[in-house]
Amino acid sequence: xxxxxxxxxxxxxVIALWQQxxxxxxxxxxxxxxxxxxxNRSAEVLIMRDQGRIVGSVMVGHxxxxxxxxxxxxxEMQRRRGAGRALxxxxxxxxxxxGAPKIQLMVRDTDAEAQAFYAGLGYARQxxxxxxxxxxx
Length: 137
Fold this sequence. Notes:
By secondary structure, the chain is of the alpha+beta class. The protein has helices at about 10-20, 30-35, 85-95, 110-120, and strands at about 1-5, 45-50, 55-60, 65-75, 100-105, 125, 130-135.
């Protein structure tokens, strides 16, 4: 499996993965979110491919103060095999290179599986109902 930056032509497959993973919401147009991130100095979408097929993605961004992670998605067949961990490591590397001293991400209160995943990576619940991890080098 390889991790690389997404390109515009990856949008349909990435958005389909986000939808399969139930990450999209009616009030956020995933096509707009994807388009805003790719090729942007302060954001990107990282994708994981297995034999050419997109099996994972994560959107990263840096607001000048802290890094943010969105849309971490792993295809069902790749879960519990380290794909999510690898994507988060790549997101952390991207944000570290961008100068972000801390990562923030949001997890729905009803998603106990995602909460356990992030806790296992060293993230902690923040008093503002977001999750964060210091990555200061």
